[in-house]
Amino acid sequence: MLVAAAVCPCPPLLVPEVAAGAAPELDTARAACTDALGVLAAARPDRLVVVGPADEPGPESYPQGTPGTFRGFGLDLDVRLGADHDLESEGTGRGLPYGLAVGAWLLARSGWADAPVEGVGVGEALPAERCAAVGRDIAARPGRLALLVLGDASACRTLKAPGYLDERAAPFDAEAARALGAADSAALAALDVTLARELKASGRAPWQVLAGAAGDAALAGTLLYEDAPYGVGYIAAAWS
Questions:
Q1: How far apart (Å, rounded) are the C-alpha atoms in residues 5 and 45?
Q2: Which class is domain 2-239?
Q3: Fewest C-beta atoms under 10 Å: which of 37, 147, 185, 218?
Q4: Are 48 and 147 in contact (CB under 8 A)?
Q5: pLDDT number for residue 90
Q6: Neighbour-count burial of 6, counting CB atoms closer than 10 A to its CB (0-12 exposed, 13-18 middle, 19+ buried)
Q7: What are phi and psi of 137, to 5 degrees?
Q8: Which pairing describes strands 47-53 and 67-69: parallel, antiparallel, or unpaired?
Q9: H-type alpha helices, the chain
Q10: In which element (H, E) is residue 63 found?
Q11: For the chain, domain boundaries
């Protein structure tokens, strides 16, 4: 049963050392992520599942202790998913996708030790119905479930954005922010897969996993942050 969820953006720039001199520009987003993780801890879950974007459609599972790295962004920083060191994960040869690595960094930064952690990666090609099914499967397991859901909105909000300016981006982001802030599972489930791909919105699939996990649960949502620095939409919210 889903009892709480934190929704956070996942640009590597959230890590101050990656952002370097631009780090203060995302201080408000980092603070919102910290607040969202506080809601998860307060819910006292039995397990935490971190859901984030991946290169392949998936879903791909990542056990607690799976390593991730920011070396590809010029930073000599490695992370592990969750508090414990899972030796078995070292032999898989598969590290965390960048979004889940940001999630691991956020958890380590918050000192997370409230419940066991596992990760699930989902890609932009995963259909909405499959995302919902993944969410339902996650929520069907016994115990109190919390989700940390990672992903960005559109990358097409300005001329200098990674995807250039697309007039459809702002309305898409506004609806996503409204749905996430209102814990509106039906609206999240209805997000257009093709449009999200064209707008480079990496959060679409993870958000639809959240929608499937929530089902008819009577959760309330709070929008903690919504902005588009660098032309990319970043949204943080908490459900409880």
A1: 10
A2: alpha beta
A3: 218
A4: yes
A5: 45
A6: buried
A7: -65, -40
A8: unpaired
A9: 16-19, 27-42, 98-110, 128-140, 169-182, 185-189, 193-198, 204-214
A10: none
A11: 2-239
Give one word for 111, left, alpha or beta, with left for phi > 0 and alpha for psi -120 to 50. left
Strand partners for 234: 227
Q: List all residues 6 or more positions away from 154 whose beta carbon is below 8 Å from its beta carbon.
A: 163, 166, 168, 169, 170, 172, 173, 196, 199, 200, 201, 232, 233
Cα distances from 106 to residues 9, 33, 111, 134, 231, in angstroms, run 11, 8, 9, 23, 22
What tens digit of pLDDT does each residue of 76-107 get?
889 999 865 443 444 345 799 999 999 999 99
Q: Percent of the chain having pLDDT more than 70?
A: 95
Interacting residues of 61 by C-beta distance below 8 A, sequence separation 6+? 118, 119, 120
The pTM assigned to this predicted structure is 0.93
Q: How many residues does the chain have?
A: 240
4 φ/ψ angles, rounded to the nearest 5 degrees: -165, 155
Both tokens of 16, joined, read 């101050």
Give the gyration radius of the chain's Cα atoms: 16
